[in-house]
Amino acid sequence: KDIDSNVLSSLNKRSIVFDGRVIVENNYRTTDPNIYAAGPVAMFSLRFGPSRDFEEFAISEIGKHLAHTVLGFLGVDEFYDPVLHDGQVKEDAPKDDPLGAELGSSKTARGADGSLIQRERPKPLPRYVEPVTKRVLLPGAYIYCITHSVAFPAYAAAEEHYNVMTSQANAAAAHDNNPQTVPPPVCTHLTSSDDQGNTYVRVSVNKSTKIIEAVIYFGDDPTVELSNLRSLVGLPSSVLNLMYNYDQHAAHHKGAKLDILNFLRQPWAYVLFYDKFREMFENVRSKFKDGVADSSYVVERVRQDILEQELLPHNADALSDEQTRLDYHNQLASESGEVRREFELELIRFLHEHKCFLPQRYFLPDISPHVAQPQ
User: Fold this and answer.
1) DSSP assignment of 251-270, as one string?
2) Would you tell me the crossing angle of helices 322-353 and 295-311 to the nearest 10 degrees?
């Protein structure tokens, strides 16, 4: 990339290391401790090992983290982080070991007195998790907007590789009847458009975790709720019951696709786009993960139980009869029902607490007999 000669001269005068971009530590400091850098002009030092470019993450999250880091250096206790604000490297100390950081190992170095000193692994880089949004205004007043998780670009690259390999495998099979094995794509894509064909929406759901990884919108509607679509990324698709409704709509309308935009504009969905809903949902999910009430835990435990029973020699046919399998299904439904009940109570409690900030479209039953009263 070209860089203005005056800018390069200023960097040299301050002895700031520049290697195509300004080199920064994990706390955004340059070689001048009074100067910080982030964004497209900066990159983390190679001694931390390979790292992705700043522009691959949400710039708002990077800016917030940079501001908190600077406030920590200025002495604001609220933003103090020992990983970022402690451990200044002494000049006679052995250098960090980036290869050890990448491989999970560490090496030794000779100290000034000839003794062996363990090299420290570099401190971890900041971890960015917020969804990334990119929006482009195209000719004809068309809007293209994509919001995706941090991991989604890797999934998209794997899917592109899958499509290429599949076409090659099909060609090979047609040529010598010897098809290649290609790993399947990571995401299921749910697509829809309006009756006029002026809008297109695609929701990408992770096949393994059922988490919404990305949402794409293309259309000419200037009033489209892009912020609402952005808030879906990171939520389980089960919160929307999206995949079920998508399949049911196709089954009952001769294969016609569900209009996802209209589906999300229904009154029941308003609470999903309230900024406090994500915090409530994460708190409830962490609560379930800490206890037995985690539905995924119940599913895995029952599945493992069935597998172990079938592997026992004397129980080879124990689960083959319908009644035994039905008993396991009833057990699973009962324990999963507890998860659903607990979540419903938490959701109704949340709606009660925030009803002043939400449209008055919800009937809220009294749940006080079902929840523990504060002492």
Assistant:
1) HHTTTPPP-HHHHHTSGGGG
2) 170
Tell me, what DSSP letter sits at residue 151? T
CA angle 224, 229, 231 (to 5 degrees): 135
Rounded to an integer, what distance in angstroms lies between the CA atom of residue 196 and that of residue 368? Answer: 48
The sign of the CA dihedral 247, 248, 254, 259 is negative
Q: What is the DSSP string of 22-70?
A: EEE-TTSB-SSTT-B--STTEEE-GGG-----GGGS-HHHHHHHHHHHH
Residues with Cβ within 8 Å of 277's Cβ and at least 6 positions away in sequence, in order, are 271, 350
Confidence at 308, pLDDT banded by 50, 70, 90: low
Q: How far is CA 203 from CA 11, 73, 107, 324, in A?
A: 44, 41, 46, 38
Q: Are strands 132-138 and 142-148 parallel, antiparallel or unpaired?
A: antiparallel
Tokens for 118, please give them: 């363990």
User: Exposed (0-12), middle (13-18) or buried (19+): which is 228, by Cβ within 10 Å?
Assistant: middle
What was the pLDDT predicted at 165? 66
Q: What confidence category does residue 135 fall into, taking pLDDT thresholds of 50, 70 and 90?
A: very high
More confident residue, 359 or 293: 359
pTM check: above 0.85: no
> Pairing relation of β-strands 22-24 and 42-44?
parallel
pLDDT at 84: 82
The 10s digit of each residue's pLDDT in 150-168 is 988 888 877 776 666 666 5
